[in-house]
Design brief:
The complex is a heterodimer of chains A (about 350) and B (about 650).
Chain A (H helix, E strand, L loop, with lengths): L1 H9 L29 H39 L9 E2 L4 E2 L2 H32 L2 H14 L4 H15 L1 H11 L26 H24 L4 H9 L4 H12 L1 H17 L2 H6 L18 H8 L6 H30 L9
Antiparallel strand pairs in A: 1-2
Helix pairs in contact in A: 2-13, 3-7, 3-10, 4-7, 5-7, 7-10, 8-9, 9-10, 10-13, 12-13
Chain B lengths: L1 H9 L5 H21 L4 E5 L4 H11 L6 E4 L3 H10 L4 E4 L21 E16 L1 E2 L2 E2 L4 E2 L1 H7 L10 H6 L11 E5 L4 H13 L1 H10 L19 E3 L1 H9 L7 E6 H7 L5 E3 L5 E2 L3 H7 L4 E2 L12 E2 L1 H4 L10 E9 L8 H15 L2 H8 L6 H11 L27 H4 L72 H4 L59 H4 L2 H11 L7 H12 L8 H6 L1 H4 L7 H4 L1 H37 L1
Parallel strand pairs in B: 1-2, 1-3, 7-11, 8-9, 8-10
Antiparallel strand pairs in B: 3-15, 4-10, 4-15, 5-6, 11-12, 13-14
The chains are: A mainly alpha (about 350), B alpha/beta (about 650).
Chain lengths: ~350, ~650
Amino acid sequence: MTMLDTEVLDAPEMTTTLPAVVRSDSPAASARTVDAQRGLGDRVFFRGVSASGMLVLIIMGAVGVFLAIEAKQALVKAGPSFLTTAQWEPDRGRFGIAAVMIGTVLIAVVAVAVALPISLGASLFITEVAPTWLRSWLIAMVDLMAAVPSVVYGLWGLFFLQGNIIGLSRWLNTWFGWIPLFEVTGADPTNPLSNASVYTASAFVAGVVVAMMVMPIACVVMRQVFSQVPPGEREGAYALGSTRWGMIRVVALPFGRGGIIGGTMLGLGRALGETIAVVLIISPSFKISFHALEAGSNSVSSLIAIRYNETSGIGLSALFAAGLVLFALTLVINFTASWFISRSRSGEGSEA
Amino acid sequence: MRRSTERARRCPAAAALLLLACLFVGGTSASTAVAGSYQRISGEGSSWAANAIDAMRVNVKKFGITVDYNPSGSTAGRKNFLNGTVDFAASEIPFQFKPEDGSAPENPAPGSYAYMPVVAGGTAFMYNLKINGKQVTNLRLSGANVAKIFTGAITSWDDPAIVADNPGLTMPTRAIVPVVRSDGSGSTAQFTSWMISQHSDVWTDYCNRSGRAPACGETSFYPIISGMISQAGDLGIAGYVSQGFAEGAIGYVNYSYALGTQFPVAKVLNSAGFYTEPTPQNVAVSLLKAQINTDESNPAVYLTQQLEGVYTDADPRNYPLSSYSYLILPTKVIGQFNEDKGLTLGAFSYYAMCEAQQTSASLGYSPMPINLVQAGFDQIRKIPGVVVQDIDIAQCKNPTFAADGSNLLADTAPQPKACDQQGALQCADGTGGLSNVPTAVLASATTPAAGGSTPTVGATAPAAGGGSATGATTPASGGSTPTVGATAPAAGGGAATGVTPVAAGGTGGAATGVTPVAAGSTGGAATGVTAPAGASATGVTTPAGSGAAAVDPGVVGVTPDAAGAAPPGPSVGAVSPTGCDADTGLCAGGTPTAVGGVATIGAVTTTTLSQSSGWGVSVVLLLLVAILTVGLVIIPALAWRHLSTAGSSLR
């Protein structure tokens, strides 16, 4: 697919033919009515496609409505405090998503912060730098990275990454601990006997693992956009004596800005909803904390995954309410992403 | 059923005769399938008891019984039982009609369930602590210190209160990381219940600090404060504690998980002033004091446990956090549970109550005493569709059964060593999964004070089982003589599994020379090692073969403390019954099972714990991840490349 796109675009298409101007007062200006009857195949196709399209909308709407109905009991009971309460004790009437939402966003932000440079670099390398034989390899690799099940990433994070990323966490905490984001309560970098445990099971570790899942999605979108950089502009930049980096800076990056933003936001949407990898890694806590490196975090989807099994009644309704908020947030982010992508010059070419 | 519909679906186009034939074939195959075999059943619940239940599941496979079990925590088990999505549940605590922690009450339909105690065990405190780079295996903690550690009141391993518990160790200045359960858990409920009963001030203070107040009663959901790690399931806790970076961590899990991950557990101080480990014998002793509800008219409480007596038991062998775990059986046909499944569940339950009890000790659990097995049999009768089995209870070969009806395992449980007593001494012996790895103790903690404090523990072992030979009566012959055999009580007709059959005190017991006797070190490393031939030894680890090797190295080092004046070398055999305490397994009480019962369950008594947890599994998982990555990335990429080049050459 992608190779095809590239080749088509590479084909020199220099001449532009404009349609002849039609004067509005000429008889040919009024719209021609098509009275040809559609054949059976056409009608079946038209109906089928319309039905599928509408079905997608209906399903999305139905999910939202279902969530809202299920969540109503909890939302009515909690009221606006649902957004400001940190604890999660629905049976006692004290529950809210303040802490959980902050944890969710923290994990997503870490994930995007890690994934954005990697995916941007990878997509630029694939479209602009890599030799052709390597290009198809890398494209396949990145696509397949998206196909690896998230539980596999989760296990990798739990058993391999968590133990090995402690050094980085400790370094960040030691030198940037004065920034609240990198602060760790209970950490004592000067003490050789201090525990490494404070750096484990954190939003940071979970975020890095989620980044591995976000990266391919963002990378695909960015690569699509970069592959549509008009060859004329690209060659023009070279013709003016630009280096490869110069060409990327003045042509590719500005052209692909919408794709970069859109791909990042799509990744953010995925990061917000990632469940099993987060469940495996974090140590769930219900405290409002902006300390990304500190042990103990939470996310909406992992809360649902952990708790749905052992709650009923109001507790279940509260989980639906949390799910509804996440649903709305993801929807907003995804719409924003597609808006950004469609606004970029590449237009409909990107599959978002 | 499905087959028949599929066949039917294929038929319509064919002739009517063919259609009839199709239906006939499909129908017969479906009906024979129901009559001839067990239906697959599923359970969910306790991860505390999961190792025992998993062993049962594996062992009933050969009868054609397939049981699925999801160890997602007692709370989830009870809830899904109520929802009717599983056929049975496993839980440490009964249904919570009036939960004390403010959670929603559980309201099962009256008469729709029955409790059946399935296994006993100890909630152990597994820890990861090193002193000068060497793993500590003999940590001791008083109950108050345990409570304070898990409530954040004690935060460093060199806290004076912990130092006082461990006179033989130079405690490091390292922060304590309590690891607790993140899911709804019966062991959390048992643990908090113990804290509320014994250290209520510590718990109340914590309840206030953690924001749980005013609902400060027993809870399945541990309140968490900063500095704690919470993990899902016993396996999650054991997995976290056993990681290299988790130095300083301590978590509460079932004893079997410590054995499986080969990590030590803390010895906990009991009311008699001894630090004990939740060995199968100690748990058996402790649970003699558990009050079991015998009000058969009220199924909501029948057979449930009251553990106050266990907490304060004055027996020196008591382990205060011992408890039973239960299967919750359906007694009515509800939801997806039907009589066909009842047939399977009944057969599985009979196996669990009878034969499975032989092997539970080798996993780190304690077998059920005879009165609860009998009560369990009565509960099984209530399952709809069950085929009632008339089981001669003596044939169960349960290690707790004595001819006179007493609890053999408890009667023969070895007394703790003198160095396990609260005071200036500390045993060097390892615990839990590292029972064979002693930890060097300070010299001041090894020498008994002159005119010492009654180190005659071995001699005072209560020989309640009648004339059973205890340690004191054993002739201390050669140094290498495995006197363990001699300590085997005569009562149960058990076999003394000694390499030297001469030493066997057991009456009718076939003393098998083939049994790999690892008298000394049991428990821990033991799980997973299969004994050769039919004679698999319960609770016995090292397939040592020779008596000399069987003696735990840890015991040797400590002998002087235990026996007082006895010379170190040759006396090892003589004091080995005392040594049995340190080494958790069945050096005395458990051995009778080794021979007789095994034939019925086959040579395989192993569900290898070591494979299901700890670093072993992480290596396996990493390999799996690697293989998956290769499979999902490299190979498709090759295929992709091949296909795309083929495609472009076409163009």
